[in-house]
Give the backbone structure.
Amino acid sequence: MAYRHSSWGRSLCCLVAAWMVVSLNRVLAQAPADGEVREKFVPIQVTEVAPGLYFQYHHQESNNAWLVTDEGVLVVDSRQHPKRAEELLAAIRKTTDKPVKYVINTHAHGDHYFGNAVFKREGATFIAHRDTLRMMQVHHGAEMKRRVGYFKQTGFDPADVRLVPPDITFDDKLTLHFGGRVVELLYVGPGQNPGDTLVYFPKEKVLFSGGPFSKNSWPNPMFTPSMSNWVVMLRKMAAMDVDRYLGGHGDIGAKQDVLNEAQMLADFDAGMRAAVAKGMSPQEILKSAPFEKYRDVRNYYRMNLFINSYHHFLTTGKPQVALP
């Protein structure tokens, strides 16, 4: 029996074809490697997560925290450009007029330390892990190139950025007793990056994680020397005496959010290893519509970059950006 296409049937076929094209384009989107930001606009939000402890959530870029004490202010990360750091300082000034005494750089990505010069001007002392210092020293130029598109997009002058290294470095743990508060800087090995520093506020049961954890956000794997260690690190973080997790990106998280990222990275690792074992190229992996269940996670549009970088790691044994 012959089948006769109705106009409704033709319309349905067209809709399905269009959906397939849109879906394929979404998967195959080629994000530039120049740092241009394509995230939706979400207004910057400041939350007092514990008495005197503030979290600034900036969906399009990176997050920050600061602790106000009787002796002054401790800031965690300094934003992506001195102009952004001035905005951060203005937000801090809405909560206190006390001097900024310390700045902790959790890792060596430019969006977390390119604003250091503003706080250097304010007289702050900078603290970071020794591997973060080394990564800053060796890869600062590459970090600048990685953000050329961001500077063009915002109109910020890259010449305003200068490398301000930490004044104090540590190896495994550094405890600050500051204005009657306790802040613990912890290093449990590399996760996303060599030098990943966890900033723990034990009394407040709050952890600022910098690079390793970002709620509902794909992290960049081009720096990690061990994805398996990264996953273990996240599970250790989830087991800590912590109620609120402040990521380098994404909003305030809970334990389940940390475990969700651990599972996402474990799935990414397993999927990439299986594809590389089949001899697939990065483009072939991308065309296979990879990791579709996570496509609504922030930063998915950069999946082409993530696949390229982790393919490099799996085929060479070295991250694209490594600790010297």
The first helix runs from residue 7 to 28. The radius of gyration is 21 Å.
